[in-house]
Amino acid sequence: MDSPARSHEPQCILCGRCLEVCPLLAATGREELSPRAKLYTLRRLADAPGELDARAVERLAGLCLSCGRCARVCPQGLDVPGAVALARGRHPGFQAWLWRAWIGRADLLWPGAARLGAALGPRGGPGALGRRLAALAPARRPAPLLRPEAFGPCPDAGKTVLFSGCLARTLRPDWARTATDLLRRLGCEPGPEPAWGCCGATLGHAGLAGARAGAVARNVAAWRAAGRPRVVTFCASCTHGLAAYAADPVAGLDAAEAAAWAEAVTPLSRLLGRVRFSVAAAPGRVLYHAPCHAGPADPDRAWLTGLPGLDADPGDGRDCCGLGGVMQLGAPDLSRAVAARLWQRRAAAPGDLMLSGCSGCLTQLAATAPLGVAVAHWLDCIDMA
Ligand code: SF4
Ligand code: SF4
Known about the structure:
The protein is mainly alpha-helical.
């Protein structure tokens, strides 16, 4: 794998840690889909161009969920999803174009897709596409589990605004309403939500560096125009995408602004530790799905599992929902295989409720859940009446 030209770069030491955490490898058993194999083939392609078929290598290496789990555990700091994004960027193709249109025109496309999904009924009829569309349609809210009883003081950080994320902006404004209500009652009076764009994370994973840079620039400009407020999020992937700006030259933040930005991005669940909730009995088990991009410090999991009386089962945190961003367009079978493994490992049964706090995970979980298993954002379970 190594070559003199790469002697200055970190090298894979074949420790195998990435193999233990890759959900794609776990679901398929296919070694050629592993992080190590992706790294090897992409480096081989760079070191010996012409020896391998570039398109075939990049197509194979592009079969990646961009979950980031391998990069988090690699002792050499090797960033496989980053290498995959670069490879995707070299051969964008039709799927990347489609993904850019789907994300970039969410305001136009998603409501129509959700209406079509609603017309297909709750299970979307036969076929994976129907279930995926049905998963966008507003689902019946689960019975309220959490009622806020007392609010502590809001930690003072000046002005506060929400970053609702694309799904809440287009299809689930009720999440933003509940979040706004919670912030008000905490005393963190939120200002009008700026004209944010996509956080850019899924565009970057898809190799759409230019589109991501545009989204980042728009959001940074909106933050500055709003007076650099605290930015409260309730989607784990948005939190992850926004937090990355602080260390990314593309964002154009100087050192002081980068520190202010890192401080400003605040998951809502981190503030909810200041609220006392009463907890109603759930009809079945309450499961929690930890989004890959929330990382080991997942604030939603810490809050939910710390709520007295809720008894939410967080699992072992090793499962990916399998959404995979642009990958699902080219390899929906792999996306489904990863989801099937999750549901099998969580042993979900009719009457159970699966909660999560990532918009992407929620659409994938709703599209793949076993019959009778409800899927909801944890905001859906809060009764603000
Ligand atoms: S980003 Fe996730 S799916 Fe892709 S190689 Fe790494 S662990 Fe596997
Ligand atoms: S964790 Fe890093 S060093 Fe270890 S096998 Fe994977 S890529 Fe190589």
